[in-house]
């Protein structure tokens, strides 16, 4: 069962459905689900990709959960708590293993999606995290893609690897849930930063500096939170950062590009017409940097630009004039 019928949830449904795995795809917008059932295509988010017959769409959680063996959370992180609270009211969903495919942090608390799941579903919940350079449009198109699934529950990551592995999706496993989720969330903030540098008219040197130094900040925070530093050099870290920060498919890049050009944030988000996870995650990243006493000047600068307290060009000047230091 996939909880969330946006572009990411639909792309995952396509991957599994093409393997003839029965999938229940749940969305809370009844009108959208009705259109999806009628046309077999998610025209709003992934036009041109018909759903296999083994994928069925629902707007009723209990119906969707009826025959589910695994639950995959693919909603925006800002909606995760509310959706999980709805799911916990369905007895069958409380007992299923959960895959956190949402790439973000809870904005108000800084919680990882796995932490949120354990809080809402209970400490007995079996939770895994999926992340990597997985742009939904490319995954839906069947282009070769790799991802990583991490879990501390014995055998769960290996079972999920078997479930997701396909001729177009190569799946790796690990145990570093914190690192995989943190990398998958924070790279969205840096993708906004990368988009800003292009919107400002800078070129490759500038973007390379932003992404490299931002990756170092991500890894420092991850280590302080108990993650493995090497995770940030893998698919969930540098892999996803590279894809998200340079691709025009990336909604976070496009929001950053618009802001760099001087477009107000609200208008930039409206242009994208989808949730840009990096916007609320920027605030959460600042919370975590302060909580764990980790210096993260790039993340703070991007957050200040998004919150309207610092102009993009002024952020560049501040960062360039920081006190000289060793790498």
Describe the structure.
By secondary structure, this protein is of the alpha/beta class. The chain is 53% helix and 10% strand. The chain contains 16 helices and eight strands. It has helices at 7-17, 30-39, 61-65, 77-87, 91-95, 113-121, 136-140, 156-164, 177-199, 204-224, 235-246, 251-260, 265-272, 278-291, 297-306, 312-320, and strands at 2-3, 23-26, 55-58, 71-73, 98-100, 127-131, 145-150, 169-174. An eight-stranded mixed beta sheet has the order 3-2-1-4-5-6-7-8, sandwiched between helices. Helix 8 (156-164) links the parallel strand 7 (145-150) and strand 8. Helix 9 packs parallel to helix 11 (235-246). The longest helix has 23 residues, at 177-199. The chain is globular and about 60 Å long.
Structural class: alpha/beta
Percent in strands: 5-15%
* Shape designation: globular
The main β sheet shows up as:
8 strands, mixed
Helix and strand run? EHEHEHEHHEHEHEHEHHHHHHHH
Tally of DSSP helical segments = 16
Topology:
Elements (H helix, E strand, L loop, with lengths): L1 E2 L3 H11 L5 E4 L3 H10 L15 E4 L2 H5 L5 E3 L3 H11 L3 H5 L2 E3 L12 H9 L5 E5 L4 H5 L4 E6 L5 H9 L4 E6 L2 H23 L4 H21 L10 H12 L4 H10 L4 H8 L5 H14 L5 H10 L5 H9 L7
Parallel strand pairs: 1-2, 1-4, 2-3, 4-5, 5-6, 7-8
Antiparallel strand pairs: 6-7
Helix pairs in contact: 4-6, 9-10, 9-11, 9-12, 9-14, 9-15, 12-13, 14-15, 15-16
